[in-house]
Design brief:
395 residues, alpha+beta, Rossmann fold, Dna Ligase, domain 1, D-amino Acid Aminotransferase, Chain A, domain 1, five-stranded antiparallel beta sheet
Length: 395
């Protein structure tokens, strides 16, 4: 039997574009030596889709001389709409052009145009199995405000917050600033609602600095969240895999020197804590009691279920070390580098993690095939019998 082809989709028009490249390269390297063929599908920052084996080589993205993201020869493919049923069929232009048929999609996007339900919608339309959360759960999880609202509805503690859109800010910024001043305790954190990797996030210690940080956040997003900080803070992360049956990881404690676990600490300083290269930025397992660990893991599972997550996701918590009170903070529907370092510490090697995620994608796909999508009705016949004519409005 012919080996299935896994399409690893990455890049896209997002501020987290570069982190997506790293995640994709990790996935493709981890799938080498398995029974799957791997097809890289890269979307550059201008939105052009590119296919080709060279896209599976990280050096082609890191070397200034190569600049592969702008090489048009990798963009000579088009999606064959007629052949793309239960798979995605890409064809190379030209008489002797190659055909690449993708049986299972493995999205490696972070942020907008990929992690937020957009690419998942495409996979659903073509009935292609794919790894990770679905359209709705991806969209909700990528909206920090909606996530917090769902937590509130289901009696899961989350920090007090306000949120608003760019048009509301432009119409009456004074009212929003006053609301933040009166309703929230300081310090507060200002966040673009749809971004990850701590991009555009800032801690604000007093009212005087709030307006500027909101303007920065609105540069990256059209919706902003302002939330109260937590005293004596410990930043806790729990990663989860599964569909109906969910497996939580060990808890990770993120140690940071700045006001928050920022982009520098996550990806650049000493090789990057989120890339699993820096040992100074994380503590696994987190330095908390076993009973509290289990309580946080169970809460993470509840959040995962309430949002309808599947495959993999990460739930972040804010813990007050003095009181033991913890707050569900954010959900990441596709953790950067799949949080492979946390799974490794939890006893799951990268290759096993990838194969498990592919199995979960297939499992979810098979269950969807049992759901009826066709409904027989006489609506059109009834219209025909009544001889209805839909004429142009100007006739």
């Amino acid at each position: 039997m012919q080996n299935k082809t896994i399409g690893v989709f990455f890049g896209s028009r997002s501020p987290e574009h570069d982190i997506s490249i790293i995640t994709a390269q990790l996935i493709m390297a981890g799938l080498r030596g398995t029974d799957f063929n791997v097809a890289p599908v890269y979307i550059n920052q201008q939105g052009f889709w590119m296919l080709g084996e060279q896209l599976a080589n990280l050096e082609n993205f890191t070397s200034p001389q190569k600049n592969i993201s702008c090489d048009k020869k990798y963009a000579r493919y088009y999606l064959d709409l007629q052949q793309s049923k239960n798979k995605l069929v890409f064809k190379q232009r030209g008489i002797a052009g190659k055909t690449i048929a993708i049986d299972i999609a493995f999205p490696a996007f972070h942020g907008a145009y990929g992690e937020d339900g957009t690419i998942q919608g495409l996979f659903e339309m073509f009935n292609v199995p794919y790894v990770g959360c679905g359209v709705v759960s991806s969209a909700i999880a990528m909206d920090k405000a909606l996530t917090k609202q769902i937590c509130q509805t289901n009696d899961i503690s989350t920090t007090k917050f306000i949120c608003f859109c760019k048009n509301e800010w432009l119409e009456d910024k004074k009212a929003i600033l006053e609301r933040a001043r009166n309703d929230l305790s300081w310090p507060v954190f200002v966040k673009p609602v749809h971004l990850g990797s701590s991009i555009g996030i800032a801690k604000v210690g007093d009212f005087a600095g709030l307006e500027n940080k909101i303007e920065v956040a609105l540069y990256y997003d059209d919706k902003v969240l302002i939330e109260e900080g937590v005293s004596d803070l410990m930043d806790i992360t729990c990663c989860l895999i599964g569909n109906e049956k969910i497996t939580p990881s060990l808890l990770q404690e993120s140690v940071f020197r700045a006001d928050l676990f920022d982009f520098q600490e996550k990806y650049l300083k000493e090789g990057g804590a989120q890339l699993g290269k820096s040992q100074s930025g994380v503590v696994i397992p987190a330095r908390i009691e076993g009973s509290l660990t289990r309580e946080i893991q169970k809460t993470a599972e509840r959040v995962y279920r309430f949002l309808g997550c599947s495959g993999i996701a990460r739930v972040d918590f804010l813990l007050n070390k003095s009181t033991g009170q913890f707050f569900a903070n954010e959900v990441n529907p596709l953790p950067g580098t799949l949080y492979h370092h946390l799974w490794k510490a939890s006893g799951v090697e990268l290759k096993d993690l990838l194969l498990r995620l592919i199995d979960l994608a297939r499992e979810k796909y098979q269950k969807k095939q049992d759901i009826a999508s066709v409904f027989q009705s006489n609506v059109l016949q009834n219209l025909s019998s009544r001889k209805l004519n839909f004429k142009k409005s100007n006739e």
